[in-house]
Structure to design on (215 residues):
């Protein structure tokens, strides 16, 4: 059974407390928070202050995904805001090992994210240092995009790497996850499904989470 992490990016920010309480009351395992800086990706979302307020309401682990340049500069701020997991992009971090080490030293689970065009083979030297690999299944920057089909092959390749090394690393799929394609994604080897529109924009978000959990 995959873990379900609704993405706050798709929530109604006029009803942010209610949306967070919905996540609490659902079968969701984590809350996923997408931080964008308008430089690494062509959009700006929110930062530590919003996460700090969300953390006052949400009783599930906060899974923070930094789609920003030089993310290590802000690791301590996100820890103080309440991040339980902090995921940074391989494409944004020329000193990736150092940045991952810093995240773990701050007491958070460290994750590394890869864009759709980035081969999973580039994770070979860092895989044993992280708890989560976020495979972007859309081009990062905007919610509501369609799942990129060849992500399924990347999931299988990454799962094989993890099994061959007997590592305890979760594969997280972020982008375009729907009720219709979730089973295929899980069968390929995914452990965590990030679901934005599929949950927050459903007629019954709690039922949508239940459906994803049942697959």
């Amino acid at each position: 059974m995959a873990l379900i992490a609704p993405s706050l990016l798709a929530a109604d920010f006029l009803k942010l407390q209610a949306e967070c309480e919905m996540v609490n009351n659902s079968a969701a395992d984590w809350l996923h928070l997408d931080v964008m800086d308008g430089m690494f990706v062509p959009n700006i979302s929110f930062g530590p202050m919003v996460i700090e307020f969300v953390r006052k309401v949400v009783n599930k682990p906060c899974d923070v995904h930094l789609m920003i340049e030089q993310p290590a500069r802000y690791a301590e701020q996100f820890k103080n805001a309440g991040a339980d997991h902090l995921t940074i992009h391989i494409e944004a971090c020329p000193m990736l090992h150092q940045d991952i080490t810093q995240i773990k030293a701050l007491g958070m689970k460290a994750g590394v994210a890869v864009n759709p065009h980035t081969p999973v083979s580039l994770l070979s030297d860092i895989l044993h240092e992280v708890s989560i690999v976020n495979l972007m299944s859309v081009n990062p920057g905007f919610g509501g995009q369609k799942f990129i089909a060849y992500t399924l092959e990347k999931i299988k390749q990454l799962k094989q790497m993890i099994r061959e090394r007997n590592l305890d690393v979760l594969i997280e799929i972020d982008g375009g996850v729907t009720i219709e394609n979730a089973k295929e994604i899980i069968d390929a080897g995914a452990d965590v499904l990030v679901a934005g529109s599929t949950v927050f924009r459903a007629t019954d978000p709690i039922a949508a989470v239940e459906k994803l959990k049942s697959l």
